[in-house]
Design a protein that fits this description.
4 helices, globular, about 650 residues, mainly beta, about 50% strand, 35 strands, 22-stranded antiparallel β-barrel, 3-stranded antiparallel beta sheet
């Protein structure tokens, strides 16, 4: 709570004049649902009405624009892909139904069940704006669900920009002990010296994740659907759950109590400094306006990064039946269950970068080395302390005419704990024409030590170690096509797995000895007839070989909507959204280590597609999302995301998004 008031105070101080100057007409013309939040000119003597808001990500020189579309509630507001499932409630443990393996070499703690809600350096935006820009988001839903988002960025002068973001998720949910309470904070800044030679990028984040763990609703496999169908359980809070069943929760936007919870505390600071050698020129726009343009030829880049991750699990009144069945624990009166792992990594990276073509920062050669020092602390005072030395290189050539884009990357862990880990990738993309669009080919191969949680885990009642795991090897082959004229995106992925590592029980990991493959076809297509639109998302997945990986064969989402622009400034979108996936042996979930668990005894199914009726609209600088979700529960019982984990009941959600320009 203290962090929230600090952020709120900073916002009030920095944008005190913004509210009074609510600019509702500065973003130019929009289509019926799309458009980017910008208004730009090709001249340097920008007029007082001109707004340019652009950003890029770290180590990616391509500028992007803010999106003001109201087409996709998940992407534009929740910022969670529609293909992700949760354990029933907003903010609970989640994973992607379109399987996405972790393809990063080097050390990894292995706690990723809540990754989708976190701020990271990789998703931090480094802005450049001509005007201060602020954005507020608020969502209210059933069962006291609330979300709040605050963002602000401004250039203090031509050379320095700062930004900060805050996001909160607080959702009690429909079932007992599944309440969530997340706080995310981020500050970024970037500075360019007056002569354009020296650059600094700064990124800081802090994630405070609290997720309720109820172990699923009480009962044996196959009985959950019968329980939901009983009239005495129309109020889902009356259904018994496996964990925290006797707790009487209290709900507050800032002080929610969670009986059984997984807690994640993550902080990271990155400081990236660059110094360039190159050529500069003074460009004369007209008789009175000129600016200095500098094109780097050679760059020295130093990156310092410190990162701390803490995982904790707490159950002060554990269920003897649940823990005995799944973890083999013998109980005494007053026992508690807890687990903790704390990791910190200090990283120093030195890179040398050359730009072969003047004026094209997307054409470069990068060679460097990184030294990591990692320490770990556990609940039973066991400690880990080790180093890694990684060598890396990259060649990127995105041509100025945007027709070709080629990239080749490589990283090798030459010394240290993860010696022998490597990742290599290559990408070739070509824009053909308006009719054929853009096509690309991708190759990636990663050889990596399994995440640490697969090798060792300790908690208050036991610990285990699996020292027989070899390095995983994953290869990805991809063909992708993006066609704006025909309005479709297609990706065909072929994954090859060797030594695939997974949890085969609630507390034990193992490794697949054989090789198996996964084929994915992912398609998005937009059909339009006058004001009627059909947005189709479709994924087909098939595992070849005897691999311990279960995925739905088909996942699909359809949005059929009427869209129109009314009264010159009202962009309206209203319709029906349906999501569905075929039945399959969905992974179970083990709350103590926070891991999804492979199982092949109980299938989960969709009785009907998840149905939502929605009304989205945007009036100049205000977007609104009004959604009646889970309409299917009026016709059939709740669908399930995992064994014994049903989705929510019917509920109304209202989301608002405002943006302000000073």
């Amino acid at each position: 709570m203290r962090h929230f008031f600090i952020i709120l105070a900073l916002l009030i101080v920095s944008v005190s004049g913004v509210m009074a100057q609510f600019n509702t007409g500065s973003f130019g013309n929009y289509g019926s649902g799309g458009g980017t939040m910008q208004r730009d000119t090709s001249q340097r003597n920008l007029g007082p009405d001109t707004i340019t808001i652009k950003y890029h990500f770290l180590n990616d020189p391509v500028d992007r624009r803010l999106d003001s579309s109201v087409i996709d509630f998940n992407a534009n507001f929740l910022q969670i892909p529609a293909s992700y499932m949760t354990l029933g409630n907003n903010g609970n443990a989640a994973r992607n139904l379109i399987y996405t393996p972790r393809m990063q070499a080097g050390f990894d703690e292995g706690f990723h069940a809540y990754d989708i809600y976190e701020f990271t350096h990789e998703n931090a935006r480094l802005y450049n704006t001509t005007r201060p820009y602020s954005e507020l988001q608020y969502l209210v839903g059933a069962q006291q669900e609330q979300m709040i988002g605050v963002s602000h960025t401004q250039n203090r002068n031509e050379n320095f920009n700062f930004a900060f973001d805050y996001r909160k998720i607080n959702s009690p949910g429909y079932f007992r002990t599944q309440n969530t309470n997340h706080d995310n904070y981020r500050v970024t800044a970037n500075y360019n010296s007056q002569n354009k030679r020296y650059h600094v990028n700064v990124s800081y984040y802090y994630n405070k994740i609290n997720g309720g763990e109820n172990g699923g609703i009480f009962g044996q496999a196959g009985t959950a659907a019968d329980t939901l169908g009983l009239s005495k359980y129309n109020s889902r809070k009356t259904i018994n759950v496996n964990l925290g069943n006797q707790d009487i929760p209290t709900y507050s936007f800032f002080g929610t109590s969670i009986a059984v919870k997984s807690s994640y505390r993550q902080s990271g600071l990155l400081i990236q400094q660059q110094y360039d050698w190159g050529k500069g020129d003074t460009i004369h726009v007209n008789d009175t306006t000129q600016y200095y343009k500098f094109d780097p030829v050679f760059r020295v880049q130093y990156t310092f990064k410190t990162q701390g991750n803490t995982f904790m699990y707490t159950d002060n009144a554990p269920s003897e039946t649940y823990y005995t069945e799944h973890y083999g624990i013998a109980f005494r009166e007053g026992d508690t269950i807890s687990a903790r792992q704390q990791w910190r990594t200090l990283s120093n990276d030195l890179s040398l970068i050359q730009f072969p073509v003047r004026g094209n920062l997307a054409h470069f050669i990068n060679l460097g080395a990184r030294f990591d020092h990692t320490t770990g602390n556990f609940l039973d005072d066991v400690k880990q302390n080790f180093n890694n030395l990684a060598l890396h290189g990259e060649y990127r050539n995105k041509t100025k005419n945007d027709l070709w884009d080629f990239s080749a990357k490589g990283e090798l862990y030459a010394l240290g704990r993860n010696v022998g880990d490597y990742s290599v990738s290559g990408m070739l993309s070509r824009y053909l024409n308006k009719t054929l669009g853009n096509v690309s080919l991708l190759f990636r191969n990663v050889n990596r030590e399994p995440s640490y949680v697969y090798k060792f885990f300790s908690y208050s009642r036991d610990s285990w170690y699996n020292g027989g795991l070899g390095k995983e090897n994953i290869t990805q082959l991809q063909f992708a096509a993006d066609n704006k004229q025909l309005k479709y995106n297609l990706a065909v992925n072929y994954f090859i797995f060797t030594n695939y590592t997974y949890f085969d029980s609630y507390m034990q990991s193992t490794q697949s000895s054989g090789l198996f493959n996964l084929l994915q076809v992912v398609l998005s297509k937009h059909f339009r007839y006058k004001h009627w639109n059909w947005y189709m998302d479709f994924a087909f997945q098939q595992v070849h070989g005897n691999g311990p990986l279960n995925v739905p064969s088909i996942w699909t989402r359809h949005r059929i909507a009427y869209e129109n622009r009314i009264f010159s400034n009202l962009n309206l979108m209203t319709g029906i959204e349906a999501r569905y996936n075929t039945e399959y042996y969905a992974d179970d979930y083990s709350p103590v280590p926070g891991q999804f668990v492979y199982q092949n005894t109980q299938k989960v199914r969709y009785y009907l597609p998840d149905l939502t009726a929605f009304l989205h609209f945007r009036i100049k600088s205000l977007s609104a999302y009004i959604r009646a979700e889970n309409l299917n529960t009026f016709l059939k019982m709740n669908n399930f995301s995992a064994p014994m984990y049903p989705y929510n009941n019917f509920g109304i959600r209202v989301g608002l998004r405002w943006w302000f320009v000073n």
